[in-house]
Every structure is written in C-alpha cells, then in structure tokens.
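Re: zinc ion structure - here you go.
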Amino acid sequence: MEIHNTTEEIVFSTIKDMCASIEKEGNSNNFCLCDQCRIDAACFVLNRIPPHYIISNRGAARIDQGAYRQQKDADVVSLVYEALKRISHNQRPHADHTGGTARKVVQGPVFNIPTIIGRAFNGANFSPLVDARVELRREGKLAEMKNRNWQNPCTLVENIQGTFTFWPESISAKEAGIRKNFEYSIKIEAAGFETLSHFFEVPVLSEAGDAESFSMNRTLKLPDMYLFPPGGDED
Ligand SMILES: [Zn+2]
C-alpha cells in the first residue's frame, strides 16, 4: 500500500501540457521554460493548493474524481500561469536557464537518480529561509549535477519560499534491473543559524539508458527542514 498525493500528478501534468502549448504558440510572454523554472513553478503551485491523498496499491488504476477534478484543474491552470510569470521575472540568479543539455551522458545501463526537492525554514518562526547555502553531498563531496540548469551548492533567495532542488548525475550500473540505495546528505548553512545536516538514502532501480530529459514525475521529496539559532535545546 502507498499513500499518494494526486494533486502532484495533476500539477506535474498541467505544467508539462501548458509548457508544450506555450512553446507551440511561440511563447510571446517570454516565459523561461527551463527544467529548473518548471520545477520552481511546480513548487509554487503545490505550496498553494491542498494535497489530496489516496491510498493505492502499487500500480493501481487512477481514481476518476469527476467534477472535483475538473474544478481543481481550472484552479491549477491559473496558478501554473501565475507561477510561470512570477518565476520568469525572478529567476534564480546563478542557474543556467538556457536548456537541459546533459553535462555528460552516461553510456550503458545506469541508475537514474531522481530530482531531489526540499524546503528549509527558520525554526523560530516557520518562515522560509532566505540567504542560505544548500549543498547536496555524496561520498564526502559535492554531488555532480546532471546539467548546468542545476546548481550545487544552491542559494535560497527571496522568492522561492525556501525551496531547493537538485538533479544529480546518473551513476553507471552493471545491468538494468538492479535495485540499490545511494546515500546522500543535505547541508544547509545560514548566518545566525546552526548548520543542519540531513542524511538520506535514495532507492533506485537501474535502467537501460540515461534519462536525458527531465521528468517531474521522477522526484524525491525530502521532509521539511528547520534551522535554529545556536545554543538552543536542540541536540
Ligand atoms: Zn529558467
């Protein structure tokens, strides 16, 4: 049994469809539709609408939610539009918005590591953290990113609501179909707060080839992280 947030699916597929039609129609508003901005838009929308959880057996058929779903789709479309507009006007300063060309494509069978998404908050007042430096580490060093859209370390700036995202590069595998856990850690540093380190495992099933294009369905969400000023009772 799995708990599943159907809102995520709706948001991801709406963004994909809307970006495709914006591109098709010539993108007259000049929205940035790079991978990083798409995922920022997804976070913007998901932070503004309630989740809708269902319990599903693995591989169970989608539940048709009828009228509820239609109303929700309309809300999502207008929120996605607002998200793309705002994010295009306040792009992440250090990211490369030019496209998603892979830095290097791993040949042969690979473990495609999912995009990793998390949020960092000020634990004293629960506001999203600003001006923090976030690192994704693996085997004692900064993890290499899939392509130049993704920054590691990345900096949390004002309009991204404490959200950080990473897409680590693929790791070659002996063959397809091997299940393996990869250890990563997040390190968050901000002035006036104790540095936070969060260790986690990413289970991955190896596949025949490198996932060259970004998919929002291939994401791993980390629990929200809270930073505290030094000298508290936190231990
Ligand atoms: Zn962009």
